[in-house]
Amino acid sequence: MKQLNDFAPRHFEKTSSCLPFKIHTIEWIKENGIDLPNDYFMLVWIVVGTGYYRLNLQKETVHTNQLLLIKPGQVHDLRFGDGLKGYVISFTDSFLDMEDYSREPIYNPIYQMFNQTNNIAIDNELADDMCDITEIMMKEYSRHNLYRSEILKRYFKIFLIYLSRQLESIEQAPKQSRNTAILQNFMALLDKNFREYKMVADYAEKLSVTPNYLNEVVKKLTGQPAGYHIRQRVAVEAKRQAIHPDNCMKKIAYDLGFCDMAHFSKFFKNATGVSFSDFKKRGTVLQPVF
């Protein structure tokens, strides 16, 4: 098997930045960092090693053949400890046409997976096949040949099919119920509209259900009502922006739809358990994970 960084690009190319799909080794990310718009999903696959990573100020243990799932807007800081090797795959829903669920049914369990868990253990035998596909994607990504995007999309679809088999082997998923569909559509709407809509009634109207019913469904499937998820989605984006030294509270509050600084400050403290100023001080002096 080739080394993980055999095909890793050494720097961001302008053409790559236009492609809504990116794949790099963990070693490359550690050296160059990561800078993605808010609408990217991310898969972090630990192929070799046991150690730590830090996501959104939280330090977590990872091990070989563990796949981390990160939804759009969740990343404001991602660091890896020494000894970890693997891949970081980033993509948008438009790259896979995930917005049109009827077009590619294979993507439904993948989308549901991002909403329900943040990590998956990959079977060793299946990991070998997935690694072969990943190396092909790395090689294609490093080139800029004709139909590059289409080739990457097709190989990535194969990668996701393998991943779907892993999910099926863990637990035979029941047929999608109406409540599950409501939850998925709510989370999709939330990711796209949290800046503008902050009331449960806003999302209930778009889903053609009552606010009480939406809260009931979401709480039954996730353990928390819809209002909690709305607040946490806004808080995650606030923290993601606050990690950057140049972003002041006024700028972040305005971007998230708050006109009153006092209101935003109170919201931030209630949602995160720490004041904005304390978080700002702590977040901008992060140390690497050891």
From TrEMBL:
Source superkingdom: Bacteria
Residue ranges of every copy of the HTH araC/xylS-type domain listed in the record: 184-282
Keyword list, A-Z: DNA-binding, Transcription, Transcription regulation
Record keyword Repeat present: no
Signal peptide: none
Molecular function as annotated in GO: DNA-binding transcription factor activity; sequence-specific DNA binding
Protein name, UniProt field: Helix-turn-helix domain-containing protein
Organism (species): Mucilaginibacter rubeus
Biological classification of the source: Bacteria, Pseudomonadati, Bacteroidota, Sphingobacteriia, Sphingobacteriales
